[in-house]
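Sample 1 of the test manifest.
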Amino acid sequence: MEWLIFGFLAVWLLASVFGTLFLKNPVHVILAFLSVILAIAGMFLHLGAELLAGLQLIIYAVAIIVFYVLVITTIPWEKVKKFEGIYKREALIAIPFLLVSFGAISYMILKGNFYISQKVPTENNIVSVGKSLFTTYLFPFEVASVILLTAMIGAIILGRKEE
Amino acid sequence: MFLSGLFGVIIRKNLITLLVSTELMLNGVNLGFVSMDRIVGGVEGQIFALFVLTVAAAEVAVGLGLVVAIFRLRGYEGSSEITQLRD
C-alpha cells in the first residue's frame, strides 16, 4: 500500500516535471509546476514531514505561483510568445551530461552505505523540528531571516520605476 | 527511495523558463533531503529543506524583479539575447 501511494505520487511528479520542462506556453508551464508542487507536498506527507508539506503548499502553491502569474501578466503577451519553446541544440548537448551525472548519483545511492538507525523517526514530527530549529539551528535561522529581508529590499529596488 | 534520488537528477535541466527550472532544482534537492531524513531517521534534513525553501522564496523575489526590470529597460528578450549586463 505504501509503495502504491509512493508510486502514484512518483508517476504524477515525473509527468508534471516533464510537462514543466517541455510545454511551450508559459502559462501551461506554470500550471504544470503547480502540479509538481502538489505532488511534492503529497510526497512530503507520505514521507512524514507534515510541517514541510504545509509550508510547501503555503509558500509555493500560493505565493510563488501567484507571483509568477503576476509577472507574466505584466509582460505583454506577444513578447512572451516570441520566445517560447526550447533550444534544440543546447538540449541535445545537455542530454549526455545529464545521463552521466544521473549514472553517478544513482551509483552513489545504490552502492552507498547509509547509516540507518532503526528508531521510529517521528512520534511528534513538528515538535522535534521546532525544537532543533530553535536550539541547534538558531543561527542559520536568523541568517535566513536576514536573507529574506535583503531579498525583499533588493526586489523593491529592482522593481521600482525609474523616474 | 531510489526513485526520489532520481527526481533530483532528472529535474536538473534548465532550458526555458529558467526560473521555473531553478525552482524545480530546489524542489528536487528538498525531496532528496526529506527522503534521506526518512531513511536515516533524523530531523535535520527537514530543517535544511526549510532553509532551502526560504532561499527559494528570496530567489523568486529577486529573479522576477530582475525579469521585470529587464522588460522595463528594453522589452522582454529571450535568455539568448541577454548577453551584456550594461549597454
